[in-house]
Amino acid sequence: LDSLAQHSWVPTAGPNFGGPISDKASADWPCIIFGKDDGRYTPNALFMAVKDQNVPGKLCVAGPPDEVAKLKDPLLQALQRKCGASVTCDFDEYDTNQDWDAVFQNTSVTSGAAAF
Predict the structure, then answer these.
(1) pLDDT in tens, 35-61
(2) Half-sphere exposure (CA, 13 Å, Cβ side) for 5?
(3) What is the pTM of this model?
(4) C-beta of residue 55 within 8 angstroms of C-beta of residue 68
(5) How many other CB atoms sit within 10 Å of the CB of residue 2?
(6) DSSP assignment of 34-68, as one string?
(7) What is the DSSP letter of 21?
(8) Residues in a beta bridge with 88
């Protein structure tokens, strides 16, 4: 992503296309949408992924360690206010610290929850 940003292209959205194929399977095509940088780009990209399949209700975060550390507690508090006290920031067997820098469990940030 840093290489693309050097040419003024930065990620602007991350929609997921697809849906159920049958009652036991679904197809997903996650995408990254790029747009021209308006001059505010820094090489510290932060990614957040809403995971509502397999084990639903997760918000996964990856990025520069100092930025994730600054974000972790305020985001946890905001998610607990909007989604309930059961929201935690813990890894599990599917989303480990090898994959992400933080994983918020028991969230509900899709389907109209308006948590942000």
Answers:
(1) 887 776 666 778 888 887 667 789 999
(2) 13
(3) 0.68
(4) no
(5) 11
(6) EEE--S---S---EEEEE-SSS-SEEEEES-HHHH
(7) S
(8) 105
